[in-house]
UniProtKB/TrEMBL annotation:
PANTHER family: UNCHARACTERIZED PROTEIN YECE, UPF0759 PROTEIN YUNF. This is DUF72 domain-containing protein. InterPro entries: DUF72 (IPR002763), UPF0759_sf (IPR036520). Transmembrane segments: none annotated.
């Protein structure tokens, strides 16, 4: 099975809020959860306003991945993780939590202390499906790649495969190896290398994801995705190149290449399959 979606549902041309979004895409990445711990009522509302077969990839709070600078608004790590788990419970109860994404920062390199962080995180998150995305090339260096993938398999991490500019050391290459037989995540960040090299200025985040994939690039990915399907049951694909309005057309273009058709039915609407 293949699911396609975007990072967030607001600010995309041609989409009308979450209900309009979920009529066209079968999955979404919740990135607001990275910047602030979302109240459980938000997840309850989002779960209620989406079709039964819709899925959420929830991005872990920045304090849980080491991104946050300054004071963390929690008395302890234990309290922080507990608050996050409590917040996402409604979407989990609804059966719509596809996975929680832990994306670590560019300075999170392949060292023993950072391996211990991953083990701690897995322990605190319990049996939830967790996706792991690195931003430091040391995890996939020639001497460490197989060991990293083996670790992810043993510890139960879903591999978040990325397409992003190759900036040493603050990015990772495309590594087409699933680590979970059920789920694999692919995230398209664009290939705006210049903006990744200089993360500065008022609008650097917007410039970083300003990129439109061309037909040749997407065709190459369609072939890769078909290969991935041989070793993982479900592939979830998220387009994060939102800055210039490119995510929607790119996602729809790839869906057409893959033969993926989705028409979500609003919650409560009777399907002709139920008649």
């Amino acid at each position: 099975m293949i699911r396609l979606g975007l990072t967030g549902w607001n600010g995309h041309r041609g989409l009308d809020g979450l209900q309009g979004y979920s009529a066209q895409f079968s999955i979404v990445e919740v990135d607001s959860s990275f910047y602030a711990m979302q109240p459980a009522r938000n997840y309850e509302k989002w779960a209620r306003n989406t079709p039964d077969d819709f899925g959420f990839v929830v991005k872990a709070y920045q304090g849980m991945t080491g991104h946050q600078r300054g004071d963390v608004p929690f008395a302890s790590k234990r309290e922080m993780f507990a608050a996050f788990l409590n917040s996402i419970q409604p979407v989990r109860d609804a059966g719509k939590l596809k996975m929680v994404l832990f994306q670590y920062p560019p300075w999170f390199d392949c060292t023993r202390p950072h391996v211990d962080v991953l083990r701690y995180t897995k322990e605190k998150m319990g049996d939830l499906p967790l996706a792991l995305e690195f931003r430091h090339q040391s995890w996939f260096s020639p001497e460490m790649q197989e060991r990293t993938l083996s670790f992810m398999k043993q510890e139960g991490w879903i591999h978040s495969i990325v397409d992003e500019p190759q900036v040493n050391p603050g990015s990772v290459p495309i590594v087409l190896q699933p680590t979970d037989p059920q789920l694999t995540l692919i995230r398209f960040h664009g290939r705006n290398r210049e903006a990744w090299l200089e993360p500065s200025g008022e609008n650097w985040r917007e410039r970083r994801y300003l990129y439109r994939y061309n037909e040749e690039e997407l065709t190459s990915w369609a072939q890769r995705i078909h290969e991935l399907q041989q070793s993982t049951s479900e592939v979830c694909i998220i387009f994060n190149n939102n800055s210039g309005g490119d995510a929607v057309p790119n996602a729809k273009q790839l869906a057409e290449m893959l033969g993926v058709k989705y028409k979500g039915e609003p919650p409560g609407q009777i399907s002709f399959f139920d008649l």
